Amino acid sequence: MQIINPATEEVIKDVTEDTQESVTRKFELLQTNQPVWQKVSLGERVNVIRTFSDLLGKNVEHLASILTAEVGKPLRQSRNEINGGIARIKWLTDNAEKYLADETMTLQEGLEEKIVYEPLGIISNISAWNYPYLVGINVFVPALLAGNAVMYKPSEYATLTGMEIQKLLVEAGIPENVFQVSVGKASVGECLLDLPFDGYFFTGSYKTGKYIYERVAPKMVPCQCELGGKDPLYVAEDVRDIKAVAAGTADGAFYNNGQSCCAVERIYVHEKVYDDYINEFAKEVQSWKVGPPTEEGTYIGPLSRKDQLDLLQQQVKEALQKGATLVTGGTRLNQQGYFFEPTVLTNVNHQMTVMKEESFGPVIGIMKVRNDEEAIQLMQDSEYGLTASVYSSDKARAEKILQQLNTGSGYWNCCDRVSPALPWSGRKHSGFGATLSHAGLRAFVKPKAFHLRG
Ligand code: NAD
């Protein structure tokens, strides 16, 4: 399999894809060694993961350059991602004992009732490329902390990063064959679905997630899906600083080239501040440097996947045919690499794909609304339910709106944000189950109830 640099379209490396045989062999090794890891004390498992985190910290520059080379994100954003991963590991390791240690619920004369959190066993982690450290860490770190063995399948677009992660985990002291990487495309993912894993944790598109969920259902093991989004944002007329709001929300839409599951994907603006907002938003977007991700100051690099260029072009074309106005951008750059101009569309509506289907790129549609009711109705009009945000100077008003939206996260005066202390979860086509927080630690264990008399 060839690893291609999306900024230059050059082949960085040839790697050997796994096969059904090699994946099965790796699975059997995980099966043999998982009980060894489970017997290691929780405290020791925490120490090993902390060492892994230290190694990430020591190797940030090296790891960031690999990440930028294979997924195309600007170097600064690659560093941010790795440092963000370190912060998540800190929360997970600091809280592992609290949520994974045995819990005595009743202790009285002649009776002890306690819960023991046993690992699920062998975890299949099929992952996405857009934040390979962050979405990987969400799964394999709590899984390992809880005593599971993990088969990590990085996306075919983030393979080298997956290999680096394995190297550092082994260096940190994960025993041999407790963490394995399976290298390859969808066909290798398929091989994992054929094996008897004890849990499937998937991050990726709705289409693949639905397929995997259906495919593993007969196994009767836990399956979690963290999928895409069409995350709405509403700007109310009482915001104090429209310039700052425009800059902050533009970043929420375009950071990582819009390739974030929780990127802002559609914006609704109260008519009283609409013109000012569009004006400031366009100025902000036009101020960004689009170019090689290795160059200082670049904010928009290439897209990671070539096929996204056509999808975005199609969304823009359809919107314009149906009456949208192009404020800026609109097409791919006429040069080597998968570059697409940051694109802002106004006069959009929900008959356009750009307001209904995930774009997962540097394209945003902005719509004018008359009041909160209209904003709520439009924000709800989606198959997805990952995040939603409201910008307003009134917290109660924002919370009232967010309560009415069927999403896993709600933001007031912020967006495109994940906290390790809070559950990360989707609703509807954005998936189900949670990672991060106490819920994300407990997702990798099965509680056993002990009733002890004597
Ligand atoms: P994708 O669905 O194309 O691929 C995800 C993974 O599934 C890859 O490793 C791929 O090789 C594998 N795969 C594909 N077909 C398979 C099959 N038939 N059987 C088994 N495995 C298979 O998604 P992607 O392009 O890598 O990621 C982008 C998507 O992920 C976006 O929709 C984004 O919103 C979503 N995402 C969600 C979250 C979240 O936390 N909710 C986080 C990151 C990305």
How does this structure look, described?
With 454 residues, the protein is an alpha/beta fold. It has 2 domains: 2-227 and 430-453, Aldehyde Dehydrogenase, Chain A, domain 1, CATH 3.40.605; 231-419, Aldehyde Dehydrogenase, Chain A, domain 2 (3-Layer(aba) Sandwich). Helix content is 41%, strand content 23%. The chain has helices at residues 20-39, 42-58, 60-71, 75-100, 132-145, 159-172, 186-194, 206-216, 242-254, 274-286, 307-321, 372-380, 395-403, 437-442; strands spanning 2-4, 11-14, 103-108, 111-119, 122-126, 149-153, 179-181, 199-203, 223-226, 231-235, 264-270, 289-290, 298-300, 325-328, 343-346, 363-369, 384-385, 387-391, 409-412, 424-425, 427-428, 431-432, 434-435, 445-453. The strands form 7 sheets. The protein has a 7-stranded mixed beta sheet with strand order 14-15-16-11-10-18-19, with helices on both faces. Helix 9 links the parallel strand 10 and strand 11. Helix 2 crosses helix 6 (159-172), helix 3 runs antiparallel to helix 6 and helix 9 (242-254) packs across helix 10 (274-286). Residues 126-130, 135, 153, 155-156, 185-186, 189-190, 193, 203-205, 208, 211-212, 226-229, 261, 358, 360, 386, 426, 431 line the site of nicotinamide-adenine-dinucleotide (NAD).
